[in-house]
């Protein structure tokens, strides 16, 4: 009975939150696609710094070990990104060199660094480099999301093992705080594949790992409870890396005051939604 309840609750929280996020991202907010990158960056940073890291540091694991895990995780994702860059550049090196204006013609060559920076900004940067950034970002987001969802599943299982009502509240809390976070995930993963259905399937598969965490947590809850802080820290590191290395640099463009204000608004909206959902979730299950 408890195992069935755990599986149903984790599936509802893990996959249901993805579908709700898709309804918002691809439906109600579809017209704001250009602003969703800003919101994704805010949601990922808020999830890392206001949810995962505080949860991990409330454990009995020493801060030094957790910070070391953060550092090693960031280096790992950096190396993963470099490997993707090398592979992508090796495959497309000829076409990149043969692009008109890749090395600058008469009108671009004379500009030196200034000319090279602005001309590729609209061509090369938004074609080859833009695809690179979000392609590697999609990888890191799915990896971090899977770990995050696994940890959520273990937490839900732990709550059900303590009390059935507490388990239901924990599942609802996970569902609430995952919706704004998955909106950011869908934005990044969709940009890496340029396909809504593929992005929804990939993020749903990551969300389904919540059920795996619940199943494993049911049998090994005591043993896994000690490892949860490390799962949370690695997940937080992946979200931090994607936000700071992939998304934020793409937003660092010279824009008008109005466009900059819109960026800040959507960035703040991502931060605020995750923060609000986290506070409601924590008050809901007595965290």
Helix and strand topology:
Elements: H1 2-28, H2 33-57, H3 63-98, H4 106-109, H5 112-122, H6 124-162, H7 164-193, H8 196-225, H9 228-251, H10 257-284
Describe this protein's structure.
It is a single chain. By secondary structure, the protein is mainly alpha-helical. It has ten helices and no strands. It has helices spanning 2-28, 33-57, 63-98, 106-109, 112-122, 124-162, 164-193, 196-225, 228-251, 257-284. Helix 1 (2-28) runs parallel beside helix 7 (164-193) and helix 3 (63-98) packs parallel to helix 9 (228-251).
Number of E strands: 0
Broad structural category = mainly alpha
Helix content: over 70%
Average of the residue pLDDT scores: 76
Question: How widely separated are the two ends?
Answer: 25 Å
Shape: globular
Can you write the helix and strand succession as a string?
HHHHHHHHHH
Give me the Rg, rounded: 20 Å
Largest sheet at a glance? none
Number of domains: 1
Strand content: under 5%
Count of helix runs = 10
Low-confidence stretches: 87-92, 94-135
Quick summary of this structure?
This protein has 287 residues and is mostly helical. The protein has ten helices and no strands.
Question: Keywords, please?
Answer:
mainly alpha; 287 residues; 10 helices
């Amino acid at each position: 009975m408890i195992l069935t309840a755990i599986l149903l609750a984790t599936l509802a929280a893990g996959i249901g939150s993805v579908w709700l996020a898709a309804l918002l991202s691809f439906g109600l907010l579809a017209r704001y696609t250009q602003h969703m990158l800003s919101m994704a960056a805010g949601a990922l940073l808020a999830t890392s710094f206001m949810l995962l890291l505080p949860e991990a540091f409330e454990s009995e694991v020493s801060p030094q070990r957790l910070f070391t895990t953060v550092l090693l995780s960031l280096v790992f994702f950096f190396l993963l990104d470099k490997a993707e860059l090398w592979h992508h550049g090796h495959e497309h090196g000829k076409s990149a060199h043969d692009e008109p204006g890749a090395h600058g013609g008469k009108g671009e060559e004379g500009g030196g660094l200034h000319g090279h920076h602005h001309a590729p900004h609209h061509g090369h940067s938004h074609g080859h480099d833009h695809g690179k950034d979000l392609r590697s970002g999609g990888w890191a987001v799915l990896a971090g999301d899977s770990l995050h969802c696994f940890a959520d599943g273990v937490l839900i299982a732990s709550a059900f093992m303590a009390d059935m009502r507490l388990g239901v509240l924990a599942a609802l809390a996970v569902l609430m705080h995952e919706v704004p976070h998955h909106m950011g995930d869908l934005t990044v993963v969709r940009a890496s594949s340029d396909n809504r259905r593929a992005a929804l399937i990939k993020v749903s598969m990551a969300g389904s790992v919540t059920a795996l965490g619940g199943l494993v947590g049911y049998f090994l809850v005591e043993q896994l409870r000690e490892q949860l802080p490390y799962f949370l820290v690695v997940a937080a590191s992946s979200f931090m890396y994607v936000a700071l290395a992939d998304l934020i640099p793409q937003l660092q463009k010279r824009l008008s005051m109005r466009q900059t204000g819109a960026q800040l608004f959507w960035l703040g909206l991502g931060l605020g939604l995750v923060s609000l959902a986290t506070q409601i979730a924590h008050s809901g299950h007595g965290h």
